[in-house]
Amino acid sequence: MTSGLFHVPLWIELVAAATGGIQGALFAAGIRDRRIDVLGVVAIGLTVALGGSLMRDVVLDQLPVVVSSEWYLLVAAAASLLGMALQSVLTRTEWLISLLDAAVMGIFGAIGASKAVAYGAGSLGAVLVGVVAAVGGGVLRDLMANRPISIIHVGTLNAAAAGIGASMLVLLLRIDVPVGIAGPISAVATALLRIAAVHLG
Amino acid sequence: MTSGLFHVPLWIELVAAATGGIQGALFAAGIRDRRIDVLGVVAIGLTVALGGSLMRDVVLDQLPVVVSSEWYLLVAAAASLLGMALQSVLTRTEWLISLLDAAVMGIFGAIGASKAVAYGAGSLGAVLVGVVAAVGGGVLRDLMANRPISIIHVGTLNAAAAGIGASMLVLLLRIDVPVGIAGPISAVATALLRIAAVHLG
Amino acid sequence: MTSGLFHVPLWIELVAAATGGIQGALFAAGIRDRRIDVLGVVAIGLTVALGGSLMRDVVLDQLPVVVSSEWYLLVAAAASLLGMALQSVLTRTEWLISLLDAAVMGIFGAIGASKAVAYGAGSLGAVLVGVVAAVGGGVLRDLMANRPISIIHVGTLNAAAAGIGASMLVLLLRIDVPVGIAGPISAVATALLRIAAVHLG
C-alpha cells in the first residue's frame, strides 16, 4: 500500500465540487411536487457539492477542505448557479442528473478512499470512508429536500457501486498501483456500475 | 484580520444556548399536527440549543464546547424547560418563536464565523462555518421533528441572512475592527435581515 | 473519577456493532409500508451498527473506531446479514427488535460515557456523549428509513433511559467504582429502563 501522506490535488476536489453543485441544483430544480425557490435550489446544490467532502473530512478527523480552501466554496457556488441556469435551458434533464450523480459518486468515492488510506485507515476503513464520501452528499440532499433517501428507497445498487469502486481502489493501492492510476480506474468503475444499476433496476 | 487564538467568552455561548433552548421547546410545543410529549419538547429544545454549537465545533475539528463545558448543557436544559413552561402561559407564541429564531441565527452565526477565523479558516471558510452554526440547530430541529427543513421549504431568505451577516463579520475583522464590535454588529444584522425576510416572504 | 486514558476493549465495541447490525436489519426488514430491498436492509443494519460509535467518536474529536478497526465493519456487516436472515426465519420479531434496541442503547451508552470520561469530558459532557452514542444509531436509522424519529415521536422515555444510565455511570466512576463494574451496571440499567418504558408507554 502507498505510504506517506498523499494529498489529493485541489483541482480534483474542485472537479468534484463542480459536478456536485450542478447535480444538486439540477435535482432540486427538477422537483415539481414541492415549491423550492431559487435560493433553495442553490442551497441544495451547495449541499451536494460540500456534503461528501465535508463528511469525509469529519470522519477522518481533519479540518475539512471545504473550510480550509477558499476555492472550494467559490466553485461549489458557481456550479450551483450554473446547474440552476441549465435547468431552464434544457428540456429534459433526467439523463444529465443521472450521469452527474454517477460522476459525483465516482469522484468523491475515489478521493475519499485514497485520502483515508493516506491518513492511515485500514483497508475496510478506507472502503467505508469512500462510501460515506460517495453517497454522503446525496443523502444530505435527500434529507434537505425532504425526500426518501435514494440509496435506501430508490436505488440501493448505488451504494453497492460505491462499495465496489472503493474496494477496487484499496486493492489496487495494496498491489502498489500508483494512486494517479488507481483513482481514475476506481472513479470510472463506480460511475459505470452506478449507470448500469439505473438500467438494471 | 485578527490573529492569535481568540476564545469566544463562555457567557456568549451560554446566551446562545439559552436562546436556542427556549426557541426549540416553544417550536416543538407549538406543533399541533403530531403528538410530541413533554420529553420530546425538551429533546427538541436541547437539539436547537446544542445543534449549531456542536456542528460548528465538529466542522472546525475541535472538541465541542457542549462536551467540554459543564455549564452549556445545564443552561440548555434549563432553557428548554423554560420554553416548555412559556408555551403554556402565553396564548400566542408565533412572534416569540420567530424573534428567538432570528436571535439564535444571529448569535450562533457570529460566534461561528469568529471562531472559524480564530482557528485559521479562510474568509469563505469562515462564512461557511458561520452559516452552518446559524442554521445547523434549526435543520437538526426540523429533522428530529419530522418536518420539512425550514431553510429550504419555508424561508430560504433565512440562510441568506446568515450568509450576509457572517460575510459582514469577516469583512469587519479583515479591516481590523475588534471582534467585540464586529460580532454584535454581525449578530444584529443577521437577526434584522431574518426578521425582514419573514415580513417580505 | 478514573484518570488516564482508558481504552474501551475492542471486543465490547464489536458486541455493540453486532447487536446494532442485527437490530437495524430486523427493523428494516420489518417495515412493510415501504419497499426496502435486500441491500437497503443491510444498509440500515450497518447504519445502526456504525451510527452510535461513529457519532460518539466524531463528537469526541477522535478518529472513529469504525474507520481505524478492520474488525468493526466486518462484524457489523456479518450481523446485518444475520439480522436479515433471522427475519425470514422468525415469525414474530417485534419483541426481539425491542430487546435488541434496549441492548444497543445500554451498550453504546455505557461505552460512550466511559470513553468521554477517559478523554477528559466533564460529567455533564460525558452524559451527553453517552446519550448521543446510545440514541445516535437509532436516529440515523429512522432518518435513512424515512420514518419519524422514534425517540421524539414514539418513545421519548428511551432517551431518558439513556440519560439516566449514562448519569449512573458517571456517578459510579466519580466515587471510584472501576469502569469494568460501572460500565455493565450502567448498560443493564439503561436496557431495563428502556424495556420498562416500552411496557409503560
Write a short abstract of this structure.
The structure is a homotrimer of 201-residue chains. Helices cover 78% and strands 0% of the residues of chain A.
- Helix share, percent of chain A: over 70%
Estimated structural class of chain A: mainly alpha
- Quickly count the helices of chain A: 9
Average of pLDDT of chain A: 90
Care to count the β-strands of chain A? 0
Overall geometry of chain A = globular
Q: What percent of residues of chain A are in strands?
A: under 5%
**Integer-rounded radius of gyration of chain A:** 16 Å
Provide the domain count of chain A: 1
Quaternary assembly = homotrimer
Helix and strand run of chain A: HHHHHHHHH
Q: Unreliable segments of chain A (pLDDT under 50, ≥5 consecutive)?
A: none
Give the N-to-C terminal Cα separation of chain A: 35 Å
Main β-sheet of chain A: number of strands, strand sense, barrel status?
none
Question: Biggest interface and its residues per chain?
Answer: A-B, 28 and 26 residues
